[in-house]
Design goal:
The complex is a heterotrimer. By secondary structure, chain A is an alpha+beta fold. Chain A is built from seven helices and five strands, in the order ααβααββααββα. A five-stranded antiparallel β-sheet of chain A has the order 1-2-3-5-4, sandwiched between helices. Chain C folds into two domains: 2-91, no CATH class; 101-376, no CATH class.
């Protein structure tokens, strides 16, 4: 086998290994972007919106009333809801304590959204539009749910905050 | 993006067609490649790069195999197969494998919930067909990376097949003829595929869903439901394949046929020569025949068949009921070959057709059920667990009877031959029918957001 | 030769249709609201890198193409027409009935929902033995007008549900008002239900009021003159199902000959009105909102009635055209919609010194409702 051929063999092998490494690296990166950095929920909420006009901060009772879950079973959370029952705006950010909590939250929020949509269907056109555009998102062990005209923007800020 | 969507029909397709036909011929491959990448990225903005990296890896390996000899060739082939199958396996089967291990060893290994890249089963198999055929010397190495990329990503067949072996379109990548005759024929095939998907599959799918949800299904209701499912999955998948083949013709490619009126099959063996033909062909070419096919002792042959069919089932989904479904057919095929053949050949045609349809329907129950207990429940309903018939069944027939009849009619080859003959002697009538289909498809797409594609998990 | 003509013509038509639609789509201005579907339409979405990367932009854009599609309403009607031609008589839970009528199907409640409601009613009745408790579960067209249903249809058993509720509510100590007998007798001489909407007509509400007054031993002497305020009402069932009927509904309002006065305060919204009727609603699509302006969490009504009794009524939208009749027999009426009510009902009952409590719901809504049980449960 000629020297030249040997060199080309090595070049090809090197290139192949590089590309496979890139492929593996890319897969790793995709898997990695599912994780999140550790930050307190209050900080995340502050980065989502500075004032939350027209919304009130919710407590354990609100959490129970809206989603049927407790802070105990879910983890650290921050909740903003509208003052009036005819207003559908909501924001929920939870640092779930485990996978089971994430599952519980997913189901609870899905149920809440369904009930709200049923309540306002045919009556409140703006409310229905906001509910249809609601955003639910998970990253790492964080859970995000928003019903608001800025829901998409808030999701972007949420994802940036926990990067 | 799916073909049966408004965005594809009035935005993506016109733009791509105009680009393809208006720009000079030498740009055509580039136009098609760019369009295909945009098409894929639209549905997978992150995983498009995964596909591109896979293409690069396999391109280099292909070239390397082509210029190497001896042991190095084999090493490269094995490397390619491992990389490709590992990638596919990681996204598609990781959860399944971990769940099974957890189940057997009572562990609690974490399961990552990763999204499955669309079409990964299809394009991985296409890439493998290229690599293996380059190794075997059946095709020449594709030295042009763009042409290779085009082969893998071509949007007509990227997401849902047919699985096109590289050997089948090797020449057309460089040199294809596009005539008005071919383009119009492709348009006709595309239109009929669209109608199958939008008008028949979606409607029958709605019937199936409405029946599935009900409790206490009587036998008639359950059979109506399974008939709807059998027709839905056929029109869904064959409609999509037709759209792919039609688009292929428009761009100058001849894609292989994927379905040949499977429900008129006269045996299970016959059925699988008519259903998802390109998958069967791929497994035969790259797994069954290398394992020895049927030129081995009977017990080896039995093993080969069972392995291939377990894999076929597994390809359809990462769950045990799919493996069971595959083995179900494997066993039936073996029984047909070794036991029933002579008996079956002597039976009258009607018996053969009923026999085939019956076992195919049972097969669909296994396929459609979410798990083994659900399958058992569905089978019990089919055989009268909750009685024979009721008002729900009557209402379902009244509401969907005509659709089911239309579905059965369109599953028969006689219908299309009849139509084809009318295009010769009554062209005005057939143009009218075709035009009506265009309008009905658009109306249905606008009205409904219900547009599922059953083979999309692949 | 003929085949070539066929292929070329068909392809030509296909291409022409697609190109025309594409051009129209790009050129026509975006609409923001669909009155046929009663919802806002998607407009051009933002194309930020993050939204493109996670698929939100793509999905919004596909909705955008669908929502802004040229002649969207025309295509929807074609589709509905074809489905009906092929024998389908139900769309989104609404039957296309015989004799130009849309009828909403009844979906029986899930067992947990029924048990929760039943339990809540029992606890509530036990807690408030000092009050007179009434319940009226209104049957809808699906059980009162079965002849309007399409043939062979398997509508839900609403009668069985009302029977069951009657038995359980009476056992809990509520006085159950069964309207079915009266409605079945009157259905041929009175138009009880709208043809395009799921609500009952004011005429039906009046019949119900007379039954209620009899059950609650209330003296009613008022005489009413029905007045047609709209002849062009197309209701919610039409929007939900996509079926359009050749007929429109009439909305009637019953004006008392002896006009009393009333003050209606929408608690928490800071609004007050001297009349039950929100005339602006007649200019919009949702004309039924004429009655009390639609749904509110809590309404306080004071009337010039000679009586000094107070009623607390828990309701869904069916009660909206029923409430004006109550003005004659109650001095104070508190109207609560459990979907939007968050306070403690017990406190309210004591604070307002309620005499009677009425639960007024239609059977379809009650079977799906989960909020009434929450409100009735003592906290």
């Amino acid at each position: 086998m000629s020297k030249k051929k040997q060199w080309i063999d090595i070049a090809f092998t090197a290139l192949t290994v590089l590309l496979i490494a890139a492929l593996a690296g890319y897969i790793y990166w995709v898997v990695l972007t599912d994780s999140a950095s550790d930050r307190p929920v209050a900080d995340i909420a502050a980065e989502i919106d500075s004032s939350f006009d027209g919304m009130v901060k919710g407590d354990e009772n609100t959490l129970k009333r809206l989603y049927g879950v407790t802070g105990q079973e879910c983890g650290e959370y921050i909740l903003y809801s509208a003052e009036s029952m005819m207003d559908v705006r909501e924001l929920l950010v939870v640092k779930a304590k485990d996978n089971a909590a994430l599952d519980t939250l997913e189901k609870a929020v899905a149920k809440r959204l369904e009930t709200q949509k049923k309540n306002f269907n045919g009556y409140g056109v703006e409310q229905t539009a906001l509910l249809d555009a609601a955003v639910t998102s998970e990253r790492g062990n964080y859970f995000f749910f928003a019903v608001h005209k800025n829901a998409d923007l808030w999701q972007d800020r949420f994802l940036t905050a926990i990067r | 993006m799916v073909f049966s969507s408004l965005i594809f029909l009035i935005i993506f397709l016109p733009v791509t067609l105009i680009g393809y036909f208006v720009l000079p011929k030498r740009c055509r491959n580039t136009v098609l490649l760019i369009a295909s990448l945009v098409f894929y990225a639209w549905g997978e903005p992150i995983y498009v790069f995964l596909m591109i990296l896979s293409i690069l890896v396999n391109y280099v390996l292909g070239v390397d195999i082509g210029r190497s000899a001896g042991a190095r060739r084999t090493v490269l082939l094995i490397a390619a197969i491992i990389v490709d199958l590992l990638t596919l396996g990681f996204f598609k089967y990781y959860g399944f494998v971990v769940d099974t291990i957890n189940g057997i060893f009572s562990l609690s290994l974490p399961v990552r919930e990763l999204a499955l890249p669309i079409g990964i089963s299809f394009y991985t198999f296409q890439i493998l067909s290229y690599i293996i055929d380059v190794y075997r010397g059946r095709v020449e190495v594709q030295k042009n990376p763009l042409r290779f990329a085009l082969y893998v990503t071509m949007f007509p067949q990227l997401i849902a097949g047919p699985i096109v072996r590289y050997a089948q379109i090797e020449k057309e990548l460089t040199d294809r003829i596009v005539t008005p005759e071919r383009v119009t024929r492709g348009a006709e095939i595309f239109l009929f595929g669209l109608a199958k998907k939008v008008l028949l599959a979606n409607t029958l799918g709605a019937l199936f869903t409405s029946v599935q949800g009900a409790d206490g299904r009587t036998a008639l209701t359950a059979w109506i439901g399974m008939t709807a499912y059998a027709l839905q999955i056929y029109f869904d998948f064959s409609g999509y394949s037709d759209m792919a083949i039609g688009l292929g013709h428009i761009f100058g490619f001849t894609f292989p046929q994927n379905f040949d009126h499977p429900y008129i099959a006269a045996s299970i063996t016959d059925f699988w020569r008519r259903w998802h033909m390109t998958l069967g062909g791929w497994f035969r070419e790259y797994v069954y025949i290398p394992m020895g096919g049927n030129r081995v002792r009977p017990w080896r042959h039995v093993c080969n068949i069972l392995v291939v069919w377990a894999l076929t089932g597994l390809w359809h989904g990462a769950a045990w009921n799919f493996v069971l479904w595959g083995l179900y057919y494997g066993v039936l095929l073996l029984l047909e070959k070794y036991l029933f053949r002579k008996v079956l050949d002597k039976c009258p045609a009607a018996i053969r057709h009923i026999y085939t349809l019956f076992f195919v329907m049972i097969g669909w129950v296994l396929f459609a059920a979410g798990g083994l207990s659900e399958a058992a429940g569905m089978l019990a309903d089919l055989f009268g667990r909750h009685g024979l018939a009721d008002l729900t069944a009557a209402y379902a027939l009244r509401s969907y009877g005509l659709w089911i009849a239309a579905g059965i009619l369109c599953a028969l080859p006689q219908t299309f031959s009849w139509y084809r003959r009318r295009t010769h002697d009554l062209p005005a009538l057939t143009v009218l029918i075709g035009a009506a289909l265009i309008f009905l498809c658009i109306a249905s797409l606008v009205a409904g957001s219900y547009n599922p594609f059953l083979y999309f998990r692949f | 030769m003929n085949r070539r003509i066929y292929l070329y013509t068909l392809s030509g038509i296909f291409a022409a249709v697609i190109l025309t639609l594409a051009v129209l789509f790009v050129c026509l201005p975006d609409k923001t609201f669909s009155s046929l579907e009663n919802r806002t339409l998607q407009t051009l979405p933002d194309a930020t890198p993050r939204q493109i990367a996670d698929g939100r932009f793509e999905s919004h854009f596909e909705t955008y193409v669908s929502d802004q599609f040229p002649a969207r309403d025309f295509w929807t009607r074609v589709n509905t027409g074809v489905c009906r031609l092929m024998g389908q008589t139900k769309s989104n839970g609404v039957f296309f009935g015989r004799g130009d009528r849309l009828v909403e199907d009844f979906i029986p409640p899930k067992e947990e929902q029924y048990a929760a409601l039943n339990g809540a009613i029992r606890s509530f009745a036990a807690e408030h033995k000092d009050l007179s408790l009434y319940a009226c579960v209104v049957p809808t067209a699906v059980s009162i007008l079965p002849e309007a249903l399409p043939s062979l249809c398997d509508a839900g058993d609403q009668n069985g549900y009302i029977d069951r509720l009657q038995k359980d509510m009476t056992a809990a100590g509520l006085h159950f008002i069964d309207l079915r007998q009266t409605f079945l007798m009157e259905k041929n001489s009175t138009s009880l239900y709208y043809r395009t909407d799921h609500h009952w007509t004011t005429d039906a509400a009046y019949l119900a009021f007379k039954e209620y007054a009899a059950a609650a031993n209330l003296e009613t002497a008022a005489v009413y003159d029905p007045l047609v305020v709209s002849r062009s009402f197309t209701g919610a069932l039409s929007a939900v199902s996509g079926y359009t009927l050749p007929v429109r509904d009439e909305i009637r309002v019953y004006l008392p000959r002896d006009e009393g006065t009333q003050m209606i305060s929408y608690t928490g919204e800071g609004k007050t009105d001297p009349t039950y009727y929100n005339i602006e609603a007649l200019e919009t699509r949702d004309k039924y909102a004429l009655f009390l302006g639609g749904n509110h969490p809590q309404i306080l009504i004071r009337t010039s009635s000679k009586s000094d009794k107070t009623l607390v009524i828990l309701k869904d939208s069916y009660a909206n055209c029923f409430i004006p009749f109550l003005g004659e027999v109650y001095r104070k009426i508190i109207v609560i919609d459990p979907r939007y009510y968050a306070d403690d009902l017990g406190t309210l009952l004591r604070g307002q010194k309620a005499d009677d409590v009425l639960l007024l719901f239609n059977a379809n809504t009650l079977a799906k409702d989960t909020t009434l049980a929450d409100v009735l449960q003592p906290k």
